[in-house]
Amino acid sequence: MQNSSPRRALTGTLVVLFALAMAVFIIGPLLWLAVRAFATNWTYPNLVPDGWTFKWWELVFSDNALGVAVQNSLFFAPITVLASALICLPAAYAFARFEFPGRRFFLIGLFAANAFPKMGLFVSLAALFYTLNLMNSILGILIVHLLGTVVFMTWIPSAAFAAVPRSLEEAARDAGASRLRVFSSVTLPMALPGILVAAIMSFLASFDEAQGTYLVGAPDYFTMPTQMYTLVLNYPTQVAAVFSILLAIPSVALLLAAHKHIVGGQLAEGFQIK
Fold first, then answer.
1. Is residue 225 within 8 Å of 247, Cβ to Cβ?
2. Is the entire prediction scored with pTM above 0.90?
3. Residues of the signal sequence (predicted)?
């Protein structure tokens, strides 16, 4: 009993130190970006910038190339989510509700696109895209983005569909509802939180996709992540900081909007379907 208090105090101190270290590790780079985006110049060993300015923000919003990159990102991400939903949600329902030969093989196979280094996969795709004349095309970029969303848009909704009690669907059928009515009135509303989480994860995956987009789309199509390569080489670091903040805004906003479902286990449950 006499040794428990010092030990508890030491444990509490270590926990606080660990929390502070994690806060510095997570918030530190974001704080550096925020300061850098408004700094006229900031050189070592000065602890604060030499001055403050909004000209880097004005440069980003007035540069036509950067504006086009923003427009392209806001175009490709929603289209990718819509196309992914149309393709993957029927498959997710089939995986959840039907037993068929090769079901587990196909489920595991959906991870294949994410189980290998992406650049190697994209280089292999590029050879196929040259043959099909898909290089430097919108369709080619959409296919690349779709590859990164398949696992989210299939596994998470599949788990959501599987979690809907069959007894509720059978009760609705016994009451005379058609299969379509049962799906639209019972199954879909109960699975909707999982589908929304999958849509948000797919949006973020498409919005942040860089390697494949650069390989397939450059030099005709640049999105915000691919434009970052040019920013690092051709613009002051303050412009890259501004662009990084703009790139992070949709991700942070969507994660904050969906954090209840993600923390509540929808994302984790999506990778536990059997």
1. yes
2. no
3. none
Beta-strand (E) ranges in 82-192? Answer: none
Q: How far is CA 223 from CA 26, 37, 160, 218, in A?
A: 25, 20, 32, 10
221 neighbors 141 (Cβ within 8 angstroms)? yes
Query: CB of 240 within 8 A of CB of 39?
Result: no
Res. 81 pLDDT band, cuts 50 70 90? very high
Number of H helices, E strands in the chain: 14, 0
Q: pLDDT band for position 242 (50/70/90)?
A: confident
State which amino acid sits at residue 252: V
Q: For residue 14, give the amino acid letter.
A: L
Cα 247–chain centre separation: 12
Average pLDDT score, the chain: 83
Q: Are 232 and 240 in contact (CB under 8 A)?
A: yes
Q: Any idea what DSSP says for residue 41?
A: -
